[in-house]
Design goal:
The structure holds 2 protein chains of 2 kinds. Chain A has helices at residues 25-32, 43-54, 69-76, 89-101, 112-115, 122-128, 150-163, 173-190, 200-203; strands at residues 3-6, 9-12, 35-36, 57-62, 82-85, 105-111, 132-137, 166-170, 193-198, 205-206. By secondary structure, chain A is of the alpha/beta class. Chain A has one domain (28-206): 3-Layer(aba) Sandwich (Rossmann fold), CATH 3.40.50. Chain A has a 6-stranded parallel β-sheet, with helices on both faces. Chain A has a two-stranded antiparallel sheet with strand order 1-2. Chain B is α/β, with parallel strands linked by helices. Chain B has one domain (6-191): Rossmann fold (3-Layer(aba) Sandwich), CATH 3.40.50. Chain B has helices spanning 6-13, 28-36, 52-62, 74-78, 82-90, 121-127, 145-149, 179-191, and strands spanning 21-24, 42-44, 68-73, 95-101, 104-105, 111-112, 132-136, 156-161. In chain B, the strands form 2 sheets. Chain B has a 6-stranded parallel β-sheet with strand order 2-1-3-4-8-7, with helices on both faces. Chain B is globular and about 45 Å long. At the A-B interface, strand 1, strand 5, helix 4 and helix 6 of A face helix 3, helix 5 and helix 8 of B.
């Protein structure tokens, strides 16, 4: 188990699974999104984070969204990985590519609206065939109350396919961790671009009140 | 408008390159670096404009004991200027960014770029928390940059005001070829596996 020091941060490099830190996800979820959705149980987040660790993911690049917030908190609380906040999602494409060049595995945690920001950046992964694992929280689909989210929500899956991704969609809590596990293995071992879309049925749709 | 010759400048800036991991942004920086020495630990990016600094950051995080040097153009960096904010937050001690600043879009006809219209990349970098940010306007200012890129006290950024125009001499097109090959070559040399 090697230590790697980085700025003020000492990080242990691990291989194999480490138990993720104990975070009160349920509490956090309650605050992050007033939701309608099938399953607000946080267990699938923890299970999914564990499979990402088992796949030796060491770097998480993110632009926050409520639907991926538990992953972000788990990563920040885990001193065996590094979490990097981005100004725009395309930065994460470059960082994940650089990390792979340096021998480390990483994942993008982004909202569906951020996929559009990345289109040209994705050519970096397509042309170099570095693994690109994207976990995308959906907006602009089932249950959406903000019409500004709809155009990107409608086009995100096709956009990612056209950019070179194999796309999976997690709709139910009992399938999410398994989908993410397979996606991570496919990305890292076969050097593929793979996305898992976390549907609003799964993560909950934000509730907007009607005008009186 | 800059006065520094890009070809001689890059030779001085990279004169301590032996163990460095070098990332080049699209266009002339690929030629600058590749013609100086085409080595396995050069990662040439032939497109994906804006990505060079971010790739450098990811590499610097993954390889904290190796000096990482990004060589890119002013407009390439401006396209993803938020990368400086993220680098300022992450503070990679081993990352240096060399901006070959010709104050124009050299690949597309020499249209004036933001740095030619008053934007100061070094000042942006400082405001992002990259304290060690300089602009070099004269050849004498190149002294010490090579040592600085190996000092591991970064992040560090040097904006080199070069003369407009393409690098003179034999073209170097490896950046336009297979990114998969460049990646495999780089990883083989660094990690012992493609």
């Amino acid at each position: 188990m090697a230590m790697w020091r980085y700025g003020n941060l000492a990080v242990r490099r691990v291989s194999g699974c480490m138990a993720p830190p104990d975070i009160e996800l349920r509490h956090r979820l309650g605050h992050s999104r007033a939701m309608v959705g099938e399953n607000l149980d946080a267990d699938w987040y923890r299970q999914s984070y564990e499979v990402l660790k088992q796949a030796r993911t060491e770097l998480f690049c993110y632009v926050p969204d409520a639907g991926i917030d538990p992953f972000i908190r788990l990563a920040h609380a885990d001193n065996t990985v590094r979490a990097v906040v981005l100004t725009t999602e395309e930065e994460g494409v470059g960082i994940c590519c650089g990390a792979w060049l340096g021998g480390r595995r990483s994942a993008l945690l982004i909202q569906s609206s951020g996929v559009g920001n990345c289109i040209n950046a994705f050519s970096l992964a397509a042309n170099t065939r570095v693994p690109m694992l994207a976990i995308v929280s959906m907006r602009g689909e089932w249950g959406e109350g903000n019409r500004w989210q709809i155009p990107m929500g409608r086009s995100v899956e096709e956009t990612m396919k056209l950019a070179g991704f194999t796309v999976y969609r997690a709709t139910h809590a009992n399938e999410a961790a398994k989908l993410i596990e397979g996606a991570a293995n496919m990305a890292y071992q076969s050097e593929q671009m793979v996305a898992v879309l976390l549907s609003q049925r799964l993560i909950g749709a934000k509730v907007f009140k009607d005008d009186p | 408008m800059g006065e520094i010759d890009r070809t001689s400048a890059i030779a001085r800036i990279l004169e301590q390159r032996k163990d460095q991991l070098i990332v080049t942004g699209l266009g002339e920086p690929c030629t600058d670096v590749g013609r100086l020495e085409d080595r396995a630990l050069n990662f040439y990016i032939g497109g994906a404009m804006g990505m060079a600094a971010s790739v450098g950051l990811g590499l610097a995080i993954a390889q904290p004991k190796r000096a990482v040097v990004v060589v890119t153009g002013d407009a390439e960096l401006m396209m993803n200027i938020g990368a400086l904010a993220t680098i300022g937050v992450q503070r990679p001690r081993n990352l240096s960014i060399i901006v070959m600043d010709n104050e124009e879009f050299g690949e597309t006809g020499g249209q004036r770029s933001h740095t030619g219209l008053g934007v100061d990349i070094a000042a942006i970098a400082k405001a992002c928390g990259i304290a060690d940010a300089i602009i070099v306007r004269e050849e004498s200012g190149l002294n010490g940059i090579a040592a600085r890129t190996n000092a591991m006290t970064g992040p560090y950024i040097a904006v080199i005001k070069i003369r407009p125009g393409k690098a003179v001499g034999v073209p170097f097109n490896k950046g336009l070829r297979s990114g998969e090959t460049v990646k495999a070559t780089f990883r083989q040399a660094l990690l012992g596996q493609p």
